[in-house]
Amino acid sequence: MDNKIKKVVIAGGGTAGWMTAAALSKLMGKHLDIVLVESDEIGTVGVGEATIPTLHIFHRLLGLKEQEVMAATNATFKLGISFENWKELNQSYLHSFGFLGKDCWACGFQHFWLKGKKQGIASEIGDYCTEHVAAKEGRFAILPNQDQNHAYHMDASLYAKYLRKFAEQHGMSRIEGKIADVLQHQDAKSKNNGHIKALVLESGQVIDGDLFIDCTGFKALLIEQTLNTGFEDWSHWLPCDSAIAVQTEATNSPIPYTRSIAHQSGWQWRIPLQNRTGNGMVFCSKFISDDDATQQLLSNIEGDPINKPRVIKFKTGTRRLHWHKNCVAIGLSSGFLEPLESTSIHLIQRSIIRLMQLFPTQEFAQQNTDEFNAQTKFEMDNIRDFIILHYKATNRDDSRFWRYCKEMSIPDSLRHRIEMFNETGNIYKFGNELFGESSWIQVMIGQGIMPKEYHSIVDSMEDEELTSFLHQIKSAAKRKVETLPPHFDFVQHYCKSTVV
Q1: I want to staple 323 with a disulfide (CB 3.0 to 4.6 A). Which of 234, 267, 372, 378 is the partner?
Q2: Tens-place pLDDT, residues 34-58
Q3: CA dihedral sign, ordered 249, 253, 258, 261
Q4: 156-169 and 14-28 are packed helices; what angle lies between their axes, rounded to 10 degrees?
């Protein structure tokens, strides 16, 4: 008997829904009936406008052309994130997407840099990374055989619109309407008892399916309101629970990095697109009111506002199960980690790829479900720890918010990383974790965690050799960047916006 999945129903649109529809229709659509249900009356969160380099994987899978995507989404290039006022007031550092220096078989580049720093022959660690230098200099280009890691600043709503057109060209169908009810199988003797059977729209239309994808955002209409999977609350580690977003007219040429500016009760983002800037405040409502936060945001923007500021409430944490029965949660329905390191779209894409790798039959083997949930938990935990690091490792004590962050308990997994780096200078990437050693090193040093020791193998290098080694890496990065054009000049040549 043919037990293959025949019909997939995606509940909800937005970035998560249309990324899912685009991938399934392109890569598996020949054998599937794919339907997406959404209502034009229901808005999307749509504030996320920054990505990380892993999005290239998704675009390659779908065969999307970078220039076309960028032109359609008003996009610019992103080489990292500038963190301002995080360690202390009037201090900043850049978390770039590049690799630091050169490693050896026994230890990472940071050990050579640490000795050089102690001897006064090394400059700031970012000087030994091409992407870091290019970001600071405001330069960028796509060159033949170039090896620069880059991501994008883009309009998330336009990205969803672009992917919708792509998905519909590959045979999936969209149904307009609000979901009024979710029906479940009610046969106690059947293996699929409690599985989702169909969506009922306000119009009365019934949409049945074999596999349901929950892209209904914070509502989590299927995975939580229907299947009651439970939620693991992380707000004691990540206390911000509110965001305000507003767009402004562009006043300067866009820079190739995101700005994250810490304030007394959270932080503010600035994301430069081709013809406007995305702005927002992430804050903890226990320490500042919505009205005061809105006023603070509006007093710290550049350019005239294009839209009215809107407040978004959220709770950081994760579903206890991301795949339960015949329902998979993707996007905000799966959980939420604030956009500090621009990981939201990455988590969407990883869930989509993971689902396709573990794609079920109508038997819904528990082994597939368990593996999906285990891999998702591993990745969420890693990203959670990385974001907590920014708040915990701070010298700021000028407000109740920062004193709370400085004194709060943290997960044992993060405590181990901090203590190991502080004592030995060592940092390791485990398995398929998102953030590599260079990312952890840049943020730890940027937040003021300076190792007490460096690896003893560095002492086998004579002082003159170490000086030459550091100089060559720094000079090579500088020379490469000097050949690049100004960032926005290249954007205008390579992927000028087609948005009217």
Answers
A1: 372
A2: 999 999 887 665 565 899 999 999 9
A3: negative
A4: 30
- Report phi then psi at 318, rounded to 5: -145, 150
* Cα distance between residue 242 and residue 308, in whole Å: 16
Q: Is the model's pTM score more than 0.85?
A: yes
